[in-house]
Each structure stands twice: as structure tokens, then as C-alpha cells.
Amino acid sequence: MLGGRRFRQSAVALCDARARQVQGAPVFNYLFRWRTRLFEDRPGAFHPACLPFVFDNTELCSQATGGGRRARRLAARMSHAWAEFARTGRPSHDDLPDWPAYTLEERPLMLFDDECRVARQLDARLLSVLPDD
Known about the structure:
There is one protein chain. With 133 residues, the protein is mostly helical. It contains five helices and three strands, in the order H-E-H-H-H-E-E-H. The chain has helices at residues 2-20, 51-54, 62-65, 68-88, 122-129, and strands spanning 29-32, 108-112, 117-120. It has a three-stranded mixed β-sheet with strand order 1-2-3, with helices on one face. The chain is globular, with a radius of gyration of 15 Å.
């Protein structure tokens, strides 16, 4: 929980600052929620559990991801989003829900899990229940 506050609070502050820039490029926020089925469903989505997915290396990191079709499916979606972002400046693609740019009003973020979806104002709710460091 403490790590969640530290990482999410920093992510929100950075996204907020970038969204305030008048001439800034669009900002896209995400939260990796996928849980490996290894280790009796622990430790959950640990830092930096998303990296094998971003680089489509879940089989090479099967000691952390468990490998298999479930991990490969999410890795394909995430790596495609990062490639699209590098190519076009927008991470959206046909195998993800529309990923809107971050705004101060809605604060949308993509939730990466077995079923990916966009949530709005989720960080505000998460940070309100996490204890202060």
C-alpha cells in the first residue's frame, strides 16, 4: 500500500503538470493491474511487473509472469500500445478500448489486466484510501 501511494501519487502529479502545459503533447496514464497466477496469487502487480508485457517478453520472464496464452495476450496489447505511441504519439489501437489523453477534468487511465478498460478519476479514489507515508 505504501508503494502504491508513492508511485501513483508521483504519476498523478506528473500527469497533472503535463496536462497543465498549454503547448504540451498529450499525456496518457495507465495502471498495470494484471496478477500472475504464480506464487499463490501474490505479490499482485508488483513494480516493475509491466516491463515483460511492454516489451512482449512474457515467455522470457516466465519466472515472474507464468508465461502462457493469458500473459502473451496482454503482452501483445501492451507492446502494440507502446509501439503505436512511439510511432504516432497516441497509444490507442484496435485491440484496446479508446485510450483518451489525460485531462485534469477526467484524469482517464488505461487499466491493463485480462480485460483492459479505461477508468476515470480512479487515482483520486485510490489515493484517498491509502495511508500517508
